[in-house]
Amino acid sequence: RARGAALVAARRGGHITFHGPGQLLAFPVLDLRRRRLPLRAYVAGLEALVLRLCRRLGLGTARALPPPFTGVWMGDSKLCAIGVHCGNHITSHGLALNCCTDLTWFEHIVPCGLEGKGVTSLSHELGQHVAVSHVLEPFLDSFQEVFDCTLVTSEEPG
């Protein structure tokens, strides 16, 4: 609270995390039954799309770890956290990719409940400022490729 943060409970997998400026937050709403996709395969798909994005950006050493770990990692530091909820086969919540996030926020929590693990960002790993706006288009391209879909945007309400 002293730093201006609030604690919000959420119904999703995973433990405590931070959401704030400099993160690409993606909360896809999908009907997994319609896609014939088990929940674990969906989580693996989210990891695959971030790994695909990382490769596009030149981070070939990014990796996913086997369950029970989720997300995308650079060494022992988490680059992208994943926490999903699924009710009646409909997904909510999703992922938080650290682009140019102030990583000191994570010093006040045990990110994802993982003692002894670090947190990193695209900016830190690439040695240059990487804004969310810089990765948004390649992220959406990766999403379409991994989930074999076409994303449609609309400027009109409804």
Automatic annotation (TrEMBL):
GO terms for biological process: protein lipoylation. The keyword 4Fe-4S does not apply. It is an enzyme of class 2 (transferase). The keyword Transferase applies. The record marks 78 as: Lowers pKa of active site Cys. Substrate binds at residues 12-19, 81-83, 94-96. Its EC number is 2.3.1.181. Belongs to the LipB family. This is lipoyl(octanoyl) transferase. It comes from Vireo altiloquus (Black-whiskered vireo). The lineage of its organism: Eukaryota, Metazoa, Chordata, Craniata, Vertebrata.
